[in-house]
């Protein structure tokens, strides 16, 4: 079985990928019970699963599904610590969509 592509996105691409599984790297800006907000070139509301252990102000990579309300249901979350170059992250997101034929199939 082929794995589903998980394109790297930020807040500006949420609407384009509604109902799709995506990968987002952002900074945790708030934690509230089973939800959190991350900053990934804009604010994104995420709905956490039981295995997600986020730390305020740390970078986190989320793999999840974009919901119709543009929040993200988390399937997997990985803490990336506090030493992340977000300019490099944005460059990778930009390259992912500029050369999308390499990274994912556009519907």
Give a written overview of the molecule.
The protein has helices at 86-98, 100-103; strands spanning 8-9, 21-32, 35-39, 43-47, 59-66, 72-81. It is of the alpha/beta class and 107 residues long. It has a 5-stranded mixed barrel with strand order 2-3-4-6-5.
In short:
This protein is of the alpha/beta class and 107 residues long. The protein is 16% helix and 39% strand.
Low-confidence region ranges: none
Gap from first CA to last CA: 20 Å
The total of beta strands comes to 6
Shape: globular
Encode the helix/strand succession as letters.
EEEEEEHH
Estimate percent helicity: 10-25%
Beta-sheet strand percentage? 35-45%
**Sheet with most strands: strand arrangement:** 2-3-4-6-5
- Provide a count of the helices: 2
Major sheet description:
5 strands, mixed, barrel
Cα-atom radius of gyration: 13 Å
| Helix/strand class | alpha/beta
Mean pLDDT over the residues? 92
């Amino acid at each position: 079985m082929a794995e589903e592509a998980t394109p790297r996105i930020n807040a500006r691409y949420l609407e384009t990928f509604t109902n799709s599984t995506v990968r987002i790297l952002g900074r945790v800006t708030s934690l509230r019970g089973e939800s959190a907000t991350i900053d990934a070139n804009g604010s994104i509301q995420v709905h956490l699963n039981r295995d997600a252990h986020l730390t305020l102000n740390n970078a986190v990579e989320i793999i999840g599904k974009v919901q119709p309300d543009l929040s993200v249901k988390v399937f997997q979350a990985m803490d990336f610590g506090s030493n992340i170059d977000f300019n490099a992250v944005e460059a990778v997101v930009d390259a992912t969509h500029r050369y999308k034929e390499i990274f994912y199939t556009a519907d």
